[in-house]
Amino acid sequence: MAFPNLTPRRYGVAALLAAGALFATAAQSQAPTAPLTPEAATVKKLVEQKIPGMLVRGVTKTGYLGLYEIQLDDQLMYTDAKVNYLISGAIYDTASKKNLTEARQRELNRVAFDSLPLDLSFKRVKGNGERKLAIFSDADCPYCARLEQELKSIDNVTIYTFLFPIDQLHPDSARKSRAIWCSADKVKSWDEFFASGKLPDNNGDCDNPVVATNALGAKLRVTATPTLVFADGSVVPGALPAPQLESEMVQAATVVAKAPAAKK
Question: Across-strand partners of 135?
Fold first, then answer.
Protein backbone atom coordinates (compact mmCIF):
# COMPACT_ATOMS: atom_id res chain seq x y z
CA MET A 1 0.00 0.00 0.00
CA ALA A 2 1.32 3.42 -0.93
CA PHE A 3 0.58 6.00 1.75
CA PRO A 4 -0.31 9.51 0.58
CA ASN A 5 1.59 12.59 1.65
CA LEU A 6 1.26 13.02 5.42
CA THR A 7 1.82 16.78 5.32
CA PRO A 8 -0.81 18.56 7.46
CA ARG A 9 -3.69 19.92 5.47
CA ARG A 10 -3.38 23.54 6.54
CA TYR A 11 -0.53 24.14 8.90
CA GLY A 12 2.21 22.32 10.77
CA VAL A 13 3.54 22.44 14.31
CA ALA A 14 5.75 25.48 13.72
CA ALA A 15 2.87 27.49 12.32
CA LEU A 16 0.64 26.47 15.20
CA LEU A 17 3.23 27.60 17.71
CA ALA A 18 3.59 30.94 15.97
CA ALA A 19 -0.16 31.44 15.64
CA GLY A 20 -1.15 30.65 19.23
CA ALA A 21 -2.54 34.11 19.86
CA LEU A 22 -4.65 33.89 16.72
CA PHE A 23 -6.27 30.68 17.92
CA ALA A 24 -7.02 32.31 21.26
CA THR A 25 -9.05 35.05 19.59
CA ALA A 26 -10.69 32.95 16.88
CA ALA A 27 -14.41 33.43 16.45
CA GLN A 28 -15.06 29.79 17.21
CA SER A 29 -13.19 29.71 20.51
CA GLN A 30 -15.08 27.18 22.57
CA ALA A 31 -14.70 25.06 25.65
CA PRO A 32 -13.80 21.40 25.01
CA THR A 33 -16.51 19.62 23.04
CA ALA A 34 -17.00 16.83 25.61
CA PRO A 35 -16.25 16.23 29.28
CA LEU A 36 -12.62 15.24 29.78
CA THR A 37 -11.31 12.32 31.76
CA PRO A 38 -8.84 13.31 34.49
CA GLU A 39 -5.95 12.11 32.32
CA ALA A 40 -7.17 14.04 29.29
CA ALA A 41 -7.70 17.14 31.43
CA THR A 42 -4.07 16.88 32.56
CA VAL A 43 -2.90 16.64 28.95
CA LYS A 44 -5.00 19.67 28.00
CA LYS A 45 -3.52 21.68 30.87
CA LEU A 46 0.01 20.72 29.82
CA VAL A 47 -0.67 21.71 26.22
CA GLU A 48 -1.98 25.09 27.32
CA GLN A 49 1.04 25.60 29.59
CA LYS A 50 3.61 24.63 26.98
CA ILE A 51 1.93 26.31 24.01
CA PRO A 52 0.16 29.41 25.36
CA GLY A 53 -2.78 30.51 23.27
CA MET A 54 -3.37 27.25 21.42
CA LEU A 55 -7.11 26.66 21.10
CA VAL A 56 -7.82 23.11 22.34
CA ARG A 57 -11.43 22.08 21.81
CA GLY A 58 -11.00 18.63 23.28
CA VAL A 59 -8.57 15.87 24.25
CA THR A 60 -9.27 12.14 23.88
CA LYS A 61 -7.14 9.09 24.63
CA THR A 62 -6.66 7.03 21.47
CA GLY A 63 -6.44 3.27 21.28
CA TYR A 64 -3.01 3.25 19.69
CA LEU A 65 0.56 3.99 20.76
CA GLY A 66 -0.60 5.54 24.04
CA LEU A 67 -1.31 8.78 22.19
CA TYR A 68 -3.80 11.49 23.04
CA GLU A 69 -5.78 13.18 20.29
CA ILE A 70 -5.88 16.97 20.50
CA GLN A 71 -8.85 18.60 18.80
CA LEU A 72 -8.02 22.04 17.45
CA ASP A 73 -10.33 24.36 15.56
CA ASP A 74 -10.28 22.33 12.34
CA GLN A 75 -7.40 19.91 12.74
CA LEU A 76 -6.31 16.96 14.86
CA MET A 77 -2.88 16.54 16.40
CA TYR A 78 -1.46 13.91 18.71
CA THR A 79 0.75 13.95 21.81
CA ASP A 80 2.10 11.75 24.55
CA ALA A 81 0.83 11.84 28.12
CA LYS A 82 3.51 14.33 29.18
CA VAL A 83 3.17 16.51 26.06
CA ASN A 84 6.85 16.13 25.28
CA TYR A 85 6.05 15.75 21.60
CA LEU A 86 3.38 16.95 19.19
CA ILE A 87 2.56 14.93 16.09
CA SER A 88 0.96 16.71 13.14
CA GLY A 89 -0.32 14.53 10.34
CA ALA A 90 -2.45 11.48 9.61
CA ILE A 91 -2.27 8.09 11.33
CA TYR A 92 -2.97 5.05 9.18
CA ASP A 93 -3.93 1.53 10.21
CA THR A 94 -1.84 -0.72 7.96
CA ALA A 95 -4.09 -3.74 8.56
CA SER A 96 -7.34 -2.07 7.56
CA LYS A 97 -5.63 0.43 5.22
CA LYS A 98 -7.75 3.09 6.92
CA ASN A 99 -6.85 6.71 7.56
CA LEU A 100 -7.77 6.88 11.24
CA THR A 101 -7.26 10.62 11.47
CA GLU A 102 -9.55 11.32 8.53
CA ALA A 103 -12.25 9.02 9.91
CA ARG A 104 -12.08 10.68 13.32
CA GLN A 105 -12.12 14.18 11.84
CA ARG A 106 -15.18 13.24 9.84
CA GLU A 107 -16.94 12.01 12.98
CA LEU A 108 -16.12 15.20 14.88
CA ASN A 109 -17.28 17.45 12.02
CA ARG A 110 -20.59 15.68 11.49
CA VAL A 111 -23.60 18.02 11.43
CA ALA A 112 -27.32 17.37 11.75
CA PHE A 113 -28.56 17.47 8.16
CA ASP A 114 -32.07 18.42 9.26
CA SER A 115 -30.65 21.46 11.06
CA LEU A 116 -29.33 22.98 7.83
CA PRO A 117 -31.25 26.13 6.82
CA LEU A 118 -32.30 24.71 3.48
CA ASP A 119 -34.19 27.89 2.61
CA LEU A 120 -30.76 29.41 1.93
CA SER A 121 -30.19 26.88 -0.85
CA PHE A 122 -31.89 26.05 -4.12
CA LYS A 123 -33.19 22.52 -4.68
CA ARG A 124 -32.70 20.10 -7.54
CA VAL A 125 -34.66 16.84 -7.58
CA LYS A 126 -33.36 13.95 -9.68
CA GLY A 127 -35.46 10.83 -10.11
CA ASN A 128 -37.52 10.08 -7.01
CA GLY A 129 -35.31 12.41 -4.93
CA GLU A 130 -35.31 10.00 -1.99
CA ARG A 131 -31.67 10.57 -1.09
CA LYS A 132 -30.34 13.90 0.22
CA LEU A 133 -27.17 15.82 -0.51
CA ALA A 134 -26.17 19.39 0.31
CA ILE A 135 -23.36 21.16 -1.52
CA PHE A 136 -21.48 24.38 -0.80
CA SER A 137 -20.47 25.53 -4.25
CA ASP A 138 -18.64 28.46 -5.85
CA ALA A 139 -19.75 29.45 -9.36
CA ASP A 140 -16.17 30.09 -10.50
CA CYS A 141 -14.62 27.05 -8.83
CA PRO A 142 -13.24 24.58 -11.41
CA TYR A 143 -13.65 21.69 -8.98
CA CYS A 144 -17.32 22.62 -8.58
CA ALA A 145 -17.64 22.42 -12.36
CA ARG A 146 -16.07 18.97 -12.23
CA LEU A 147 -18.53 17.90 -9.54
CA GLU A 148 -21.46 19.08 -11.66
CA GLN A 149 -20.26 16.74 -14.40
CA GLU A 150 -20.10 13.84 -11.94
CA LEU A 151 -23.60 14.60 -10.66
CA LYS A 152 -25.07 14.07 -14.13
CA SER A 153 -24.85 10.30 -13.64
CA ILE A 154 -26.31 10.35 -10.11
CA ASP A 155 -30.05 9.66 -9.81
CA ASN A 156 -32.73 9.54 -7.12
CA VAL A 157 -31.34 12.38 -5.04
CA THR A 158 -32.47 15.79 -3.87
CA ILE A 159 -29.55 18.22 -4.06
CA TYR A 160 -29.53 21.41 -2.00
CA THR A 161 -26.96 23.87 -3.35
CA PHE A 162 -25.67 26.65 -1.10
CA LEU A 163 -24.07 29.46 -3.09
CA PHE A 164 -20.71 29.89 -1.37
CA PRO A 165 -18.44 32.28 -3.29
CA ILE A 166 -14.87 32.47 -1.99
CA ASP A 167 -13.95 36.08 -2.71
CA GLN A 168 -10.22 35.63 -2.11
CA LEU A 169 -10.03 33.10 -4.95
CA HIS A 170 -12.86 34.19 -7.23
CA PRO A 171 -13.68 37.89 -6.79
CA ASP A 172 -16.49 37.82 -9.40
CA SER A 173 -18.22 34.74 -8.05
CA ALA A 174 -20.47 36.60 -5.59
CA ARG A 175 -21.93 38.70 -8.42
CA LYS A 176 -22.59 35.60 -10.48
CA SER A 177 -24.12 33.82 -7.50
CA ARG A 178 -26.52 36.68 -6.88
CA ALA A 179 -27.56 36.75 -10.55
CA ILE A 180 -28.25 33.01 -10.53
CA TRP A 181 -30.25 33.26 -7.32
CA CYS A 182 -32.30 36.18 -8.64
CA SER A 183 -33.30 34.35 -11.83
CA ALA A 184 -36.79 32.99 -12.36
CA ASP A 185 -35.44 29.42 -12.56
CA LYS A 186 -32.39 28.95 -10.34
CA VAL A 187 -31.75 25.35 -11.37
CA LYS A 188 -31.87 26.16 -15.09
CA SER A 189 -29.62 29.18 -14.62
CA TRP A 190 -27.11 27.16 -12.59
CA ASP A 191 -26.99 24.40 -15.21
CA GLU A 192 -26.70 26.87 -18.08
CA PHE A 193 -23.87 28.71 -16.39
CA PHE A 194 -21.80 25.56 -15.96
CA ALA A 195 -22.65 24.40 -19.49
CA SER A 196 -21.85 27.62 -21.35
CA GLY A 197 -20.91 30.39 -18.93
CA LYS A 198 -24.18 32.15 -19.63
CA LEU A 199 -25.64 34.20 -16.79
CA PRO A 200 -29.28 35.25 -16.39
CA ASP A 201 -30.10 38.80 -17.44
CA ASN A 202 -30.53 40.54 -14.10
CA ASN A 203 -28.52 42.76 -11.75
CA GLY A 204 -28.57 40.30 -8.87
CA ASP A 205 -30.22 42.89 -6.65
CA CYS A 206 -33.04 40.72 -5.29
CA ASP A 207 -33.13 39.49 -1.70
CA ASN A 208 -30.46 36.78 -1.79
CA PRO A 209 -28.73 34.50 0.76
CA VAL A 210 -25.10 34.88 -0.33
CA VAL A 211 -23.98 36.70 2.83
CA ALA A 212 -25.93 34.27 5.01
CA THR A 213 -24.48 31.20 3.27
CA ASN A 214 -20.98 32.54 3.79
CA ALA A 215 -21.74 32.89 7.49
CA LEU A 216 -23.20 29.38 7.56
CA GLY A 217 -20.12 27.98 5.86
CA ALA A 218 -17.88 29.68 8.40
CA LYS A 219 -19.94 28.20 11.23
CA LEU A 220 -19.62 24.72 9.73
CA ARG A 221 -15.89 25.26 9.05
CA VAL A 222 -16.29 25.01 5.29
CA THR A 223 -12.95 26.17 3.89
CA ALA A 224 -13.05 24.87 0.33
CA THR A 225 -15.46 24.27 -2.53
CA PRO A 226 -17.12 22.08 -3.29
CA THR A 227 -17.93 20.79 0.19
CA LEU A 228 -20.59 18.11 0.44
CA VAL A 229 -22.86 17.27 3.36
CA PHE A 230 -24.43 13.83 3.17
CA ALA A 231 -27.66 12.70 4.81
CA ASP A 232 -25.86 11.35 7.88
CA GLY A 233 -24.20 14.73 8.43
CA SER A 234 -20.80 13.71 7.08
CA VAL A 235 -18.94 16.72 5.71
CA VAL A 236 -16.64 15.84 2.82
CA PRO A 237 -14.68 18.38 0.76
CA GLY A 238 -13.81 17.79 -2.87
CA ALA A 239 -15.21 16.94 -6.28
CA LEU A 240 -15.87 13.26 -5.65
CA PRO A 241 -16.20 10.96 -8.68
CA ALA A 242 -19.63 9.49 -9.28
CA PRO A 243 -18.81 6.01 -7.89
CA GLN A 244 -17.57 7.55 -4.64
CA LEU A 245 -20.64 9.80 -4.45
CA GLU A 246 -22.81 6.70 -4.73
CA SER A 247 -20.77 4.91 -2.08
CA GLU A 248 -20.99 7.86 0.30
CA MET A 249 -24.75 8.14 -0.15
CA VAL A 250 -25.25 4.43 0.47
CA GLN A 251 -23.14 4.67 3.62
CA ALA A 252 -25.04 7.76 4.77
CA ALA A 253 -28.38 6.03 4.21
CA THR A 254 -27.18 3.08 6.31
CA VAL A 255 -26.17 5.37 9.18
CA VAL A 256 -29.48 7.24 9.03
CA ALA A 257 -31.44 3.98 9.00
CA LYS A 258 -29.65 2.81 12.13
CA ALA A 259 -30.10 6.08 13.99
CA PRO A 260 -33.66 5.48 15.34
CA ALA A 261 -32.67 2.05 16.65
CA ALA A 262 -29.65 3.57 18.38
CA LYS A 263 -31.87 6.05 20.22
CA LYS A 264 -34.17 3.41 21.70
Answer: 161, 228
